[in-house]
Amino acid sequence: MGIVVQKYGGSSLSDAASVKRVARRIVQAKKAGHDVVVVVSAMGDTTDDLIDLAEQVSPRPPAREMDMLLTAGERISMAVVSMAINDLGFSARSFTGSQAGVITDAVHGKAKIIDVTPGRIVSAIDEGHIVIVAGFQGVSGDTKEITTLGRGGSDTTAVALAAALRADVCEIYTDVDGVFSADPRIVPAARKLDRVSYEEMLEMAASGAKILHLRCVEYARRYDIPIHVRSSFSTLEGTWVIDPADTKEEDMEHAIIAGVAHDRSEAKITVVGVPDKVGEAARIFETLAGVEVNIDMVVQNISAAATGLTDISFTLPRADGQTAMGALARLQEEIGYEKLLFDDQVGKVSLIGAGMRSHPGITAKFFSALASAGVNIGMISTSEIRISVIVDENQVEAAVQAAHTAFDLDATEVEAVVYGGTGR
Amino acid sequence: MGIVVQKYGGSSLSDAASVKRVARRIVQAKKAGHDVVVVVSAMGDTTDDLIDLAEQVSPRPPAREMDMLLTAGERISMAVVSMAINDLGFSARSFTGSQAGVITDAVHGKAKIIDVTPGRIVSAIDEGHIVIVAGFQGVSGDTKEITTLGRGGSDTTAVALAAALRADVCEIYTDVDGVFSADPRIVPAARKLDRVSYEEMLEMAASGAKILHLRCVEYARRYDIPIHVRSSFSTLEGTWVIDPADTKEEDMEHAIIAGVAHDRSEAKITVVGVPDKVGEAARIFETLAGVEVNIDMVVQNISAAATGLTDISFTLPRADGQTAMGALARLQEEIGYEKLLFDDQVGKVSLIGAGMRSHPGITAKFFSALASAGVNIGMISTSEIRISVIVDENQVEAAVQAAHTAFDLDATEVEAVVYGGTGR
Question: Is this complex scored with an ipTM above 0.85?
Answer without folding.
Answer: no
